[in-house]
Amino acid sequence: MAAGAQAQLIADDPDWRESDTPTPPTFSRDKLLPLEMPPYVTLQFGIDPATLSISPDGIVRYVVVTSNSSGSVSAFYEGIRCSKGEVKVYARAGGTGSWTLAAKPEWRALSSNQPSRHAVIFARQAACTGAAAASSTDDIVRAMKK
């Protein structure tokens, strides 16, 4: 999220509970919506629009697929909690598409020093509107196609 938006994050709700996480969805590389990564990033990142969901607890879940110039592919099933500026990785998949669940998925700040900044790019580009999740998956897809 943008640095200015960090101050607008919603205060902790002591009663907030994350909804049950669905099983990682099957993904396709055919219709990926590209993330606008900085020019120095050599990997390509795309969101499979068929995997997008917004749960009642405000979590935007999605599969992001990465590929490099040699054709290696990886995917991550993730969730973004816009209200807190956090991301969680639920599962990872290699080129075969077979998911491996994360042992102990934990929420991390989008602003933390992650190996890849794709989650913060996705939050800015489409998943979040300020400190709220986008109003619909259709809105996310439209924002990514701009």
In short, what is this structure?
The protein has 146 residues and is an alpha+beta fold.
Task: Give structural notes.
The chain contains three helices and ten strands, in the order αββββββββαββα. With 146 residues, it is α+β, with helices and mostly antiparallel strands. The chain is globular, with a radius of gyration of 14 Å. It has helices at residues 3-6, 118-127, 137-145, and strands at 33-34, 44-47, 53-54, 59-67, 73-81, 86-93, 99-101, 108-109, 128-129, 132-133. Strands 1, 2, 3, 4, 5, 6, 7 and 8 form an eight-stranded antiparallel β-sheet that branches. A hairpin with a 4-residue loop joins β3 (53-54) and β4. The protein has one domain. Mean pLDDT is 87; it is low at 1-8.
Q: What is the tally of beta strands?
A: 10
Largest sheet: 8 strands, antiparallel
Number of domains: 1
Spatial gap, N to C terminus: 18 Å
**How does the helix and strand content classify structurally?**
alpha+beta
Helical fraction equals 10-25%
* pLDDT averaged residue by residue: 87
Distinct helical segment count: 3
- CA-atom Rg in angstroms: 14 Å
Segments where pLDDT lies below 50 for 5+ residues? Answer: 1-8
β-strand percent reads 25-35%
